[in-house]
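Sample 3 of the quickstart, ligand succinic acid:
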Amino acid sequence: MLSARIAVRPLSGAGGAEISGVDVARTLDAATVSVIRAALNEHCVVFFRDQDLDVERHKAFARCFGEIFVHPLLREANADPEVVMVRREPGDVSYFGEAWHADTTMCDEPPLGTILYGIEVPPYGGDTLFANQYLAYETLSDGMKKMLSGLGAVHSHGETRSIHPVVRTNPETGRKMLFVNEFHAKEFVGMTEAESRPLLKFLFEHGNRPEFTFRFRWRKGSIAFWDNRSTKHIALGDTGPFHRLMRRIQIRGDRPA
Ligand code: SIN
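Result:
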């Protein structure tokens, strides 16, 4: 039965919503899962505060939305292939998530979503920024939309490559979004990297316009659950002298179309 206390509160004009009245560590009923899924489709990222989530409950929460995605390039490195620990130490110059990206789009079926849980969070700094790729698509001119329709892009990481449409549709809502990100998208299908670069650069920068972005300030026990189809994100590098430790579990997605 749906809790009477569940509330979804939008955080900005661009996206993001905080969900209260849900104890994520408990077994969730179908009505609660469907409220969360609808909020994810509408707001692109949902946030929860003050949650106490061990690894098994974290996995159980992820499984409410699909099977767990195993990262093909990290599976060997991790003690548990279903879990990625995202760690930052004082003085780190390079770190996980430091450029705008969507997760793991070099795969044929990139994750539908990612659930990140804050274990050790700095008193300030280390926020995560998100950018709404529905708005990025919808604000393009009709001429640009026409040019992008039917265009594919090569996404890669190391030896792993895949081709995805530049404009993708959320099959649950029918809404279209821009689907290229600076970390993985290298060139358009049928064009060289040099030919692709100017338009890709425009699309990357357009996708990060300030009015499409929203920012999450972490606390210990916070969860950010993002729709990896309709958002890009970046972890900010201002943690200075502090440690930051998050646990990440991803949910399997479908082939972008
Ligand atoms: C990620 O890019 O998956 C991690 C984001 C973060 O650490 O805020």
